[in-house]
Amino acid sequence: MARIAIIYYSSTGANHTIAGAFAAGASEAGAEVRLRRVAEIAPAEVIERNPEWSAHLRATEHIETATPDDLVWADGFVLGAPTRFGQPAAQLKQFMDTTSGVWGEGHLAGKPATGFTSSDERHGGQESTLLAMYHTLFHWGTIIVPTGYVDYDLSHAAGGNPYGVSAIVGDGPPSDDVLALAHYQAGRIAALADALAAP
């Protein structure tokens, strides 16, 4: 049974919802799943000025905070964060910047991984955010698994992003099509992780 770590950042809940769809998809594919959120690093006074942000932070306090050991444990992983000016949110990037030790020991190489993101606007930096996220995975030696158009109809319905799962949340929560693609992509990651981890 493959072990899949889903590590994400979400300020107001959209990426938390997508992470949940990945977790469900991986579990249904037979994987053991760790759902982890990265630590919040924004100043408390900034968070408290945004009711949605502060409410979501309180609502997800029960989810364990990610550590590099979660990546070591995993046979494959999923990383997600909203886009911030065409880059992954600093909270996820900060977590990724703490992985030098486990990377140097070779614990991240050869594992399949994929990414997800969201933005308010259709052209709000989703593709550049995923590509920037993958820059770190190149250094890790990870096997990057894009959504591509493996299931064309599903990918097209979810917005047609071949780089990873992405949602336009300016009009509301992640759509059912986006969540369906996340569920499907999680199954792919679980199957690949299982095959690559086999002795």
Q: Can you describe what's shown?
A:
The structure is a single chain. This protein has helices at 14-28, 44-48, 51-59, 68-73, 90-96, 100-104, 126-140, 152-157, 176-197; strands at 3-8, 32-37, 76-80, 83-84, 87-88, 112-119, 143-144, 165-168. Strand 1, helix 1 and strand 2 (32-37) form a beta-alpha-beta unit. It is built from nine helices and eight strands. The longest helix is centred in the C-terminal third of the chain and has 22 residues, at 176-197. Helix 1 (14-28) packs across helix 9 (176-197). The strands form two sheets. Strands 1, 2, 3, 6, 7 and 8 form a six-stranded parallel sheet that branches. The model has no long low-confidence stretch (mean pLDDT 96). It is α/β, with parallel strands linked by helices. The radius of gyration is 16 Å and the shape is globular. It starts with a strand and ends with a helix.
State the main characteristics.
8 strands, 9 helices
H and E order: EHEHHHEEEHHEHEHEH
Shape: globular
Structural class: alpha/beta
Poorly predicted spans: none
Overall helicity = 40-55%
Question: What is the end-to-end distance?
Answer: 12 Å
Over the alpha carbons, how many angstroms does the gyration radius reach?
Answer: 16 Å
β-strand amount? 15-25%
- The total count of helices amounts to 9
Mean pLDDT: 96
Q: Largest sheet, if any? A: 6 strands, parallel
Total beta strand runs: 8
Q: In a few lines, what is going on in this structure?
A:
Helix content is about 45%, strand content about 20%. It contains nine helices and eight strands. Helix 1 packs across helix 9.
